[in-house]
């Protein structure tokens, strides 16, 4: 009787010598066609990598004769070239229920922003050229007037993200000196961005006042001295402390700072430019409110509630923003032409606030009527059920989503969607993982969430249901 290692039919196993040389494989008609399409450099590199991998399998006795046939090698190579050229960043359908999802790119750009972006990127532009004088310009001027108009600030500047805005503000205004901040506002956000670490990186000495849950005016008054360069307020948008709490408002703190000649900066993080309550959403402090309260500098994000590209926006007094703009670190953090063009177009939308729920995707999705989402879920239920049958059942359910994973994560949004549950109670976890993997493997990956032994597809952010429906046959085939 043959041993297990001898069970392979004689002649079916390939050896390293059965593999062609790189040059010989490149001369095959099908491979030559790949070279004509993609160039010699890429195809030759993939040929070498493929032959090295196959040679290792041959040495291990794992390669078959069928795999070294010319047609099989050409097909394998074509797949490798296609995979190498496939983009790593891909569009997905966000059915998680979180509108501003940190891991899924946060805010969607408005059509106007996309059009302006394409126009500015497809040819030269006046990024740092003054068309009136014919001399060198300042890229901040692209958006400064808009930001001042919308917020009421005396001056404004922008950097690549809000973490950079906070870092630059502290470094420019307080490097080598003390910054007073409430202990209850020493936040940490995604990516281990911690306020104490930012202070240290900016070269400032942090002075904590108050306690985790309560900070009073006299805490600030006692801490401010001749070494104090800045008082910092941090809006805790990504968590909430409840119960026996106390904090000092920006208006009250601004009076304390003015009396002692110390500037006040506040980091809003999320950065809403409109009163969210006007749209039936939870209140979020705006830069306008903070400036009116007396803050000298306000920093906030561009790709969260504002609904634009990733950016760190800095608005405030002419004196404070001027110092920030002139600080050497500013150049290292400046925005490139691509996000700057998108930011300008997004800010222009706010000049027509009556149209925001139509023109700005973030606000449009946040204010989408629940009845509309429920109707969409009902319309999709039968087709989704047919795609996942006979292993899963689908029902329309009421859901509670989120405004953002890092922006207002504790605020809930009434929504609706589809709940897909395995019909077999045994192995529920594996069945749900298989379904989630199949959805992620679609041409346009579908991202939902698993909760309560069901895979939930929140439809608030699904504005193109036809794209979702067109992929259901592929899902059915994978799950069959």
Strand order of the largest sheet: 3-11-10-9-8-4-7
Count of individual beta strands: 16
The gyration radius over C-alpha positions equals 29 Å
Q: With helices defined by DSSP (H or I, 4 residues minimum), what is the helix count?
A: 20
Task: Give the overall average pLDDT.
Answer: 93
How large is the share of residues in beta strands? 15-25%
Q: Could you name the ranges where pLDDT drops below 50 across 5 or more consecutive residues?
A: 1-10
Tags for this entry?
single chain, 480 residues, alpha/beta, five-stranded mixed sheet, 20 helices, disordered N terminus
Describe this structure in words.
There is one protein chain. Helix content is 42%, strand content 17%. The chain is an alpha/beta fold and 480 residues long. Strands 3-11-10-9-8-4-7 form a seven-stranded mixed sheet, sandwiched between helices. Helix 5 runs antiparallel to helix 14 and helix 17 (370-388) crosses helix 20. The model is unreliable at 1-10 (pLDDT under 50).
Layout of SSEs?
Blueprint: H1 22-26, H2 29-38, H3 40-59, H4 70-85, E1 93-94, E2 98-100, H5 111-121, H6 141-151, E3 155-159, H7 162-174, E4 178-182, E5 188-189, E6 193-194, H8 195-201, E7 205-209, H9 217-223, E8 228-234, H10 250-260, E9 264-269, H11 287-293, E10 297-301, E11 312-316, H12 318-326, H13 329-333, H14 337-349, H15 356-359, H16 361-366, H17 370-388, E12 392-404, E13 412-422, H18 428-440, E14 446-447, E15 449-451, E16 454-458, H19 465-470, H20 472-479
Parallel strand pairs: 1-14, 2-12, 4-7, 4-8, 8-9, 9-10
Antiparallel strand pairs: 3-11, 5-6, 10-11, 12-13, 13-16, 15-16
Helix pairs in contact: 2-3, 3-4, 5-14, 6-14, 7-12, 17-20
């Amino acid at each position: 009787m043959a041993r297990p290692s001898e069970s392979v039919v004689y002649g079916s196993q390939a050896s390293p010598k059965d593999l062609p040389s790189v040059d010989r494989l490149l001369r095959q008609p099908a491979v030559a066609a790949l070279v004509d399409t993609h160039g010699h450099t890429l195809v030759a590199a993939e040929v070498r990598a493929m032959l090295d991998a196959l040679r290792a399998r041959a040495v291990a006795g794992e390669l078959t004769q069928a795999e070294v046939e010319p047609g099989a090698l050409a097909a394998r190579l074509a797949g490798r070239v296609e995979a190498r050229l496939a983009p790593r960043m891909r569009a997905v359908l966000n059915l998680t229920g979180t509108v501003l999802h940190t891991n899924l790119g946060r805010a969607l750009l408005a059509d106007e922003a996309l059009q302006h972006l394409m126009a500015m990127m497809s040819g030269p532009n006046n990024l740092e050229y003054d068309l009136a004088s014919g001399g060198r310009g300042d890229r901040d001027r692209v958006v400064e007037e808009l930001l001042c108009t919308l917020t009421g600030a005396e001056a404004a500047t922008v950097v690549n993200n809000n973490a950079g805005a906070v870092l630059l503000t502290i470094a420019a205004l307080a490097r080598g000196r003390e910054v007073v901040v409430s202990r209850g506002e020493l936040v940490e956000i995604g990516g281990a961005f911690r306020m104490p670490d930012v202070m240290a990186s900016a070269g400032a000495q942090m002075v904590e006042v108050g306690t985790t849950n309560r900070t009073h005016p006299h805490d600030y008054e006692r801490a401010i001295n001749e070494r104090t360069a800045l008082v910092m307020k941090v809006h805790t948008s990504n968590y909430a402390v409840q119960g026996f709490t106390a904090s000092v408002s920006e208006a009250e703190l601004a009076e304390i700072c003015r009396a002692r000649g110390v500037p006040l900066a506040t980091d809003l993080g999320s950065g809403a430019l409109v009163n969210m309550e006007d749209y039936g959403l939870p209140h979020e402090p705006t830069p306008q409110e903070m400036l009116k309260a007396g803050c000298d500098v306000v920093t906030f994000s561009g790709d969260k509630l504002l609904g634009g590209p990733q950016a760190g926006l800095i608005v405030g007094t002419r004196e404070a923003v001027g110092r920030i703009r002139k600080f050497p670190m500013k150049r290292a953090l400046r925005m490139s032409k691509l996000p700057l063009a998108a930011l300008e177009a997004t800010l222009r939308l706010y000049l027509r606030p009556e149209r925001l729920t139509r023109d700005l995707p973030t606000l449009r999705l946040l204010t989408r009527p629940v009845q509309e989402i429920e109707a969409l879920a009902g319309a999709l239920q039968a087709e989704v059920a047919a795609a996942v049958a006979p292993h899963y059942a689908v029902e329309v359910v009421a859901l509670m989503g989120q405004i953002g994973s890092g922006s207002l994560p504790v605020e809930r949004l009434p929504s609706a969607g589809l709940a897909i549950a395995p019909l077999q109670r045994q192995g529920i976890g594996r069945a749900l993982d298989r379904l989630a993997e199949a959805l992620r493997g679609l041409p346009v990956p579908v991202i939902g969430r698993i909760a309560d032994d069901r895979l939930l597809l929140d439809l608030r952010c699904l504005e193109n249901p036809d794209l979702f429906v067109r992929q259901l046959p592929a899902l059915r085939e994978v799950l069959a």
